[in-house]
Design goal:
Largest interface: A-B, 46 and 46 residues
Number of domains of chain A: 3
Number of strands of chain A: 17
Shape of chain A: globular
Radius of gyration of chain A: 20 Å
CATH architecture of the largest domain in chain A: 2-Layer Sandwich
Strand content of chain A: 25-35%
Number of helices of chain A: 11
Helix content of chain A: 25-40%
Distance between the termini of chain A: 54 Å
Order of helices and strands of chain A: EHEEHEHHHEEEHEEEEEHEEHHEHEEH
Oligomer: homodimer
Structural class of chain A: alpha+beta
Chain lengths: ~375, ~375
């Protein structure tokens, strides 16, 4: 057995963050990029091709021993074409569908007896959920895109008309917080979770994460772990998956699934003995999974969103001097307002101080505080 | 200020391990490799050229904002040529000389009042050190190469004749252990050390390291730190440096200097908040240095030396299942007997268990224990 070549469809920051653990493990990584300036294509062997082009993806996949994804925008037909041609591709199409199609996901959660909000597949007709409700495009949404708060029937009809596709309707929950938990599973069926994370949101965008979730009971933390493991087994996951949950009182409700390394698991790079990126590589190669223990009492991750500043290098002089333990991750993407262009992570025992330092770094990087 | 391009002369495993922190910091790394199959050239932007070719090195350096080294085999004349052409190159030639020339190093330690063994620059004539003694080639030695135990005058004359160059003679110390300490310093003069490491040796080759050094007093640990900081300042170091020391009773004696990331600091990748590789990048770019705290009570690193096995991938199945916390670093170099082809690191509280697990991994990888 030689060191395998792992193909990744996509070349954004998630693929970029796979480069380090692949290098450490001796795994050759090859990307299907859309452009040579893509975040990961800048630093990794790649082909140029469109992930929706079945022929291009197959040609790429034939140069790899195993193929995986860093985003959900690969059509089912393209994945099935790989499978029909004998390519080892993980997660498999019949698992991946649950992170691509929100109605299939809701049905599956019901089937597994896992906590859904009230939901309805809507293509006109009676609405069984009371207003205000949440309407979602069934495919293609992420980071708050494709999610709409609907106050009345008129708004719903307008949206349905605009989108021109059926919608998923969900009850609008009044939740205490949003929690995410990462889980990994290998073809052998070995599974592992990490500590659950509080994903702090602003306008549907995750701005920071705190791990482990502060102020939740042992029962809630255990319940989150069980839900993640049940889904992983129930959908025959291979790779890592983020399970996003709403905490409502003492209950958890499944919000979304993302079947790939995910922003809510970036803290694992420094905060766990095995990062989500290393674990994803281990899982899709069917290697035994790594230790997911925390390396610190608290781990705070903050997303760097594009702001007024274009220069992301000069702030190092101040931030590294102020907070010597702060770890930077720059994706080398063009700065655009609101775009995730990097993240910072800080570990330690004093959660208040960690949150203050991370917030200062984010404000400083965005230009919200002066130099 | 844009993200700078950092040039590294050399493309072995040390350059390979710089790729991950450079990527995280958004720094573009470019290597001067001798061959496209070099360990780091496999995964990083590179030029092909000989590090002894002043013109090739200058042409390479002109494409970079700052240049550094991953080995000591770059002639002083080549470095001075860069400096004379206005290239920012670190460490500077007048610092780097102390890791290239062992006689200059001994003189400097004397000048700084730091503990040398008895030593003599020998080009024939009287020998002032009693036999058995250690003879070293003045330049070019590493990993026990260029170091000879000399029992009598006859052996010395033969060696001197064979080498055809002056030698450095040193008293043969009876030492308790070998200790290494990594230190970093920036052009601003900011300096930082990591915890001192016990470098366990076998036949002049470091086989494993244990950090922090077990069974030494606070005084010895502090003395090691002071020596490292004194040397760093005394030679105007820029970058990271390994200071190798002999522990003789309650004293420390300076053995060798290596002015680059070093095998005795590989443990810092997982074992410290800031690795030697990230710190080297920060230092040569004159960025504030990172936190060097330990991430665990004990850190054990073991070198994977080429043995009977050629297949370095298959052992993952057993080793990852047995020791989920074991971190692997494969350099993707051809397996040759005795050659360093990778390393493993394990962190935890129980030093005996950590050492056992690392030793098992090394034995298994070398073929010394059956599958």
């Amino acid at each position: 057995m030689a060191f395998p070549r792992l193909g990744v469809i996509g070349a954004g920051q998630l693929a970029r963050m796979m480069v380090a653990p692949a290098t450490e493990l001796g795994i050759s990584l090859r990307l299907l990029a859309q452009d040579p300036t893509d975040s990961a294509a800048q630093i990794c062997d790649h082909f140029i091709g469109n992930p929706t082009d079945a022929e291009a993806v197959l040609n790429f996949a034939r140069t790899c021993d195993v193929v995986t994804f860093e985003h959900e925008q690969v059509p089912q037909s393209v994945i099935k074409n790989l499978e029909n041609n004998g390519i080892k591709v993980y997660p498999r199409s019949d698992s991946f569908i649950y992170s691509q199609n929100k109605v299939e996901m809701r049905k599956k959660m019901d089937e597994l007896g896992l906590p859904n909000p009230r939901w309805q597949h809507y293509s006109g007709g009676n609405v069984e959920i009371s207003y205000p409700l949440i309407a979602k495009t069934i495919t293609g949404g992420y980071d708050g895109r494709g999610v709409f708060v609907i106050k009345n029937e008129g708004e719903l009809l307008d949206l349905h008309n605009d989108i021109g596709q059926p919608l998923l309707l969900e009850e609008k929950l009044t939740f205490d917080s949003e929690i995410a938990i990462m889980v990994a599973r290998s073809p052998h069926g070995q599974a592992a979770t990490w500590a659950a994370t509080w994903t702090v949101q602003d306008g549907g965008i995750c701005t920071s994460t705190i791990t482990p979730v502060p102020d939740v009971s042992e029962e809630i933390a255990t319940a989150a772990t069980k839900i993640a493991l049940n889904i992983a087994q129930g959908i025959s996951l291979v790779g890592v998956m983020a399970v996003e949950l709403f905490k409502v009182g003492d209950s958890l409700i499944v919000n979304e699934l993302a079947m790939r390394p995910h922003n809510s698991g970036h803290w694992t790079i420094e905060g766990s003995r095995t990062s989500q990126f290393e674990q994803h590589i281990r899982a899709v190669l069917d290697l035994p999974l790594g230790d997911t223990s925390l390396t610190s009492q608290w781990v705070v991750m903050g997303n760097i969103l594009g702001g007024e500043k274009n220069d992301m290098y000069r702030p190092y002089l101040h931030l590294m001097a102020r907070t010597p333990g702060l770890k930077f991750h720059h994706y080398r993407k063009d700065v655009r307002p609101g775009r995730k262009i990097g993240h910072v992570t800080l570990l330690g025992d004093d959660l208040v101080e960690l949150r203050n330092e991370v917030q200062h770094a984010l404000d400083y990087l965005s230009g919200a505080v002066d130099e």
